[in-house]
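Practice problem 4.
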């Protein structure tokens, strides 16, 4: 029997694909979000440890204009929709905010940590220029 390489505690989509971890294809979420007429904002709620950050990582890798993700999505459901991939894949600036590791013993500490996260993300992505890009696609993930 083949041993499954299960990615316990790993929520980075690229790492899961690169290291060939066992992965249940959830890329249909991308086409569902793009093809369905939705509200201006899409709220994705799930219980703890249900893959919210991993799903946001997948969305980030799919849309991010600074990446070339074609090979990463090869063999997955979304790659079958070549028209959608040509139009949307790696065409948008993305800011990926994850509050996965934000923790606090009281409200003040938690509030400070949550305010720091967007600033730290912006500093890491200071090179991202929106001037030559379409409107930004911004994702965030909150886990407790």
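Answer key:
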């Amino acid at each position: 029997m083949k041993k499954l390489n299960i990615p316990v505690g790993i929520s980075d989509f690229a790492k899961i694909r690169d290291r060939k971890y066992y992965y249940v294809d959830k890329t249909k979420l991308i086409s569902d979000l793009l093809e369905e007429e939705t509200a201006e904002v899409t709220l994705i709620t799930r219980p703890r440890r249900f893959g919210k950050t991993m799903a946001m990582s997948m969305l980030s890798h799919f849309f991010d204009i600074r990446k070339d993700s074609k090979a990463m999505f090869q063999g997955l459901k979304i790659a079958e929709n070549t028209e959608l991939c040509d139009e949307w894949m790696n065409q948008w600036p993305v800011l990926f905010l994850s509050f996965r590791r934000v923790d606090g013993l009281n409200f003040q500490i938690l509030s400070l940590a949550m305010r720091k996260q967007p600033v730290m993300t912006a500093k890491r992505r200071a090179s991202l220029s929106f001037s030559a890009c379409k409107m930004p696609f911004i994702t965030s993930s909150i886990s407790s």
